[in-house]
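To fix ideas at the outset, we first show an illustrative case, written as a sequence plus integers encoding its fold:
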Amino acid sequence: MEPQIYILVVEDELEVMDALVNDLEKFEDTFPVETANTSEEAKRVTEQIYESGGEVGLILCDHVLPGENGVDFLISLQSDDRSQKSRKVLVTGQAGLEDTIQAINNADLNYYIAKPWTREKLHEVVVDELTEYVIKQEYDPMKFMSVLDSIRLADVIRSGRITDR
């Protein structure tokens, strides 16, 4: 049986977090959304997900957080085999060029969304990143056809790259 795949939102401003979670509602049935206000809390949440047998497929992380900033948090995830494969998206209006370069080079950043975002852009990025996650982890694409990129998933099925486990 395949593990539950989670979306983790790391954001310290409650209004912004509520907006992100609200915009992710259409994914919630397939990809439960967990939240954290700080990088320390995010580390505890990810550990709980892993301990329950789940995976963090996508992390949407702000840069400016109390304590450790978002870029440093994303970089720290690279030292854990379980979270290296997570898709990482920086959602911020405050990361400068140096921080962004750090995230790309050292945190394997997959995407950058500038605040304020649009729901359409967020959905586009979430679909793309989670589709990539499912394909790379070789999970059964059929389970995700209704919520992710069905064309890319169908191509994977037709190619035979993913077989039944």
Residues 5-119 form a domain with the Rossmann fold fold (CATH 3.40.50.2300). Residues 21 and 33 are 7 Å apart (CA to CA). The mean pLDDT is 90.
